[in-house]
Amino acid sequence: MGADRPRQRSADARRRPDRLITGSERHERDGQPGVFDETPATGTLPANLLEALASVLERHTDTPDECLFAFWEGFAGMPPVVAGAPAFSVPGRRFHLLTGPLEAVHALTAFPRGQSPNLWWPRDRSWCVATEIDFKTTYIGADRACADQLTSTPGVEAFRVSPDTGIDWLSDALNRRPSTT
How far is it, in rounded angstroms, from Cα 4 to Cα 168? Predict the structure, then answer.
């Protein structure tokens, strides 16, 4: 799997979820008025976007009190509660896993630099949020009703993608890279 290919993010292997992408490399220097006013951080979601996503996602799970939150172990300043949590590995990455209610996602961003979980999902696997550590991109696997609500949420830049959509700037169809000519 090349670096320009997304890993397939599936909320539940038993059905085909809609796939969404939020965030981008757009407006690297000056933000995007109406969506974000500062350049997005690499590998994390800003608190206001995290809040908007959690608000929508809570309405699309039967287990909002039973969620899992995974943090990449390579982030500096990881709080002891995260660093001491059980760990698991996927190819090229190792994560620490915490559990708790969906609302805990806000408290878990108490890293010195406001690090959000890189992966988070409810116990019923009705959706999954995956923020790539090396990019300013987050993928969400969800059913159509949830995807529709996310794409229509004010302040959230989100659109549907397919499993073969790249994750680098050159594959961002919504935010074309400015011409250098």
Answer: 6
The answer to whether 129 and 121 are in contact (CB under 8 A) is: yes
pLDDT over 70 percentage in the chain: 68
Q: Is residue 82 part of a domain?
A: yes
- 176 falls within a domain: no
Spatial contact of 54 and 102, defined as CB atoms under 8 Å apart: yes
Q: Is the residue at 5 inside a domain?
A: no
CB 73 within 8 A of CB 87: yes
pLDDT at residue 35, rounded to an integer:
52
Tokens at 30, concatenated: 């000056």
Residue 146 covered by a domain: yes
Count up the domains in the chain and report the number: 1
Euclidean distance between CA atoms 165 and 101, whole angstroms: 32
For 74, 75, 97, 132, the CA distances from 112, given in Å and listed in that order, are 14, 10, 19, 19
pLDDT tens digits, one per residue of 4-53: 323 333 333 334 445 555 554 444 445 555 555 566 678 888 888 888 99
Q: Identify the domain containing residue 23 by its residue range.
A: 18-29+36-170
